[in-house]
Design goal:
- With about 350 residues, the protein is of the alpha+beta class.
- About 40% of the residues are buried.
- Strand 6 and strand 7 form a beta hairpin.
- Strands 1, 2, 3, 4, 5, 6, 7, 8, 9 and 10 form a ten-stranded mixed β-sheet that branches.
- The chain has twelve helices and ten strands.
């Protein structure tokens, strides 16, 4: 029972660590859009700085530079500003896309990405603060006009601030030079993101306020994934030591039997296999316990983290355990069991029959 508990705990930690790391990787890519938007053009390039607004000619130069690059698959200009609406006392951070943005890869929690004028997507904080839901309509003030919008989707953008995403057709007046915040760029397969960034920056020159860069996933996800992996490794080692202790005690308790087996001709390899197989049964049971426990723990942890970040989560973030992968990961219980049993099994295999019998 002690061996079973140690193996189940260790295997659960390993499977959970893999699942949560995969989930956090998907969250990082969704939040930064790095999976589909490997390059962004942002303000404050080598020729820019605070208080220096880009000119229309400099904005046009960015578009020309992107069109001239053979690695450009698609791009879309993004306009950002704060708009007002009933129910959001502090306003709403709005992003308007001057073209198709469905490819950028925003994680959809519920509903869908907008695909027609008058439709918008919002984050969880928007729904919480306004009391609206997917499918409802609202009127927003863009500063130049009032627009009626219909919420068609909830997107994964963790923030305490409400955010709204739509097209420049849906949000009139946002597509102005002072609101232009960046370009999201998709690359053709095989194009190097770093090489593309260098080429675009060379084309823009040192006097441009715009600069190409790769999206930043943020330190939180990297640190969290690293800590999860370290914790899983420590738990797996502890489980292995528990198995080692149990098998060592069992081996010493059965030293007379082992001496008899050796005297009757059992070879060291056979003895090594026999002792290792003592933990095979508990390892199989531990794997059967660890797999569903790790899945449940991963889902519960994701919900808790999402609640802290004031956001929902797309179903794809939790769907990181296809049956084949879960079956392979469950072998962690067997791996831990074998690793813990090898040392005492090796001692038993090397011991001479006379030594074992004298010890008895």
């Amino acid at each position: 029972m002690v061996t079973l508990a140690a193996l189940a705990f260790g295997a659960t930690a390993v499977i959970f660590a893999f699942g949560l790391s995969s989930s956090l990787n998907r969250a990082a890519q969704s939040q930064s859009l790095s999976a589909n938007v490997p390059v962004q053009i942002q303000e404050f390039g080598p020729g820019g700085g605070p208080g220096q607004a880009p000119t229309a000619a400099q904005d046009a130069a960015v578009t020309a530079a992107l069109r001239a690059q053979p690695g450009t698959l698609r791009d879309v200009a993004v306009y950002s500003t704060r708009i007002t609406m009933p129910g959001a006392a502090q306003g709403v951070d709005a992003e308007a896309f001057a073209g198709d943005a469905s490819w950028t890869g925003y994680g959809i929690i519920s509903g869908r990405w907008y695909d027609a004028p008058g439709e918008v997507d919002v984050n969880t904080a928007f729904l919480d603060q306004t009391g609206l839901a997917v499918g409802d309509t609202a009127t927003v003030n863009t500063g130049t006009a009032h627009a009626a919008v219909r919420i068609v989707g909830e997107v994964f953008q963790p923030s305490r601030e409400p955010r709204l995403f739509g097209s420049t057709q849906t949000l009139p007046g946002l597509a102005s030079g002072e609101n232009l915040s960046r370009w999201d760029v998709g690359l053709r397969p095989g194009t190097s993101a770093s090489g593309y960034v260098q080429a675009v920056n060379r084309a823009l020159g040192s006097s441009s306020p715009w600069g190409a860069t790769t999206p930043d996933n943020g330190n939180f996800y990297s640190i969290a994934i690293g800590l999860i992996g370290l914790l899983a490794l420590m738990v797996a080692i502890a489980a292995g030591l528990g198995v080692l202790n149990t098998v060592l005690m069992t081996t010493r308790d059965r030293v007379h039997d082992l001496g008899v087996f050796k005297a009757l001709g059992m070879r060291p390899g056979q003895l090594l296999t026999m002792v290792t197989c003592w933990v095979a049964g508990p390892a199989v049971l531990a794997a059967m316990i660890a797999a569903p426990a790790a899945v449940a723990l991963n889902n519960a942890t994701l919900r808790a983290m999402a609640g802290t970040a004031h956001t929902g989560i797309p179903a794809s973030f939790a769907d990181v355990f296809p049956p084949a992968r879960l079956a392979v990961l469950s072998l962690a219980a067997l791996a831990i069991a074998v690793a813990g049993a090898l040392l005492p099994a090796g001692w038993a295999a090397r011991a001479r029959a006379a030594t074992a019998l004298r010890a008895e």
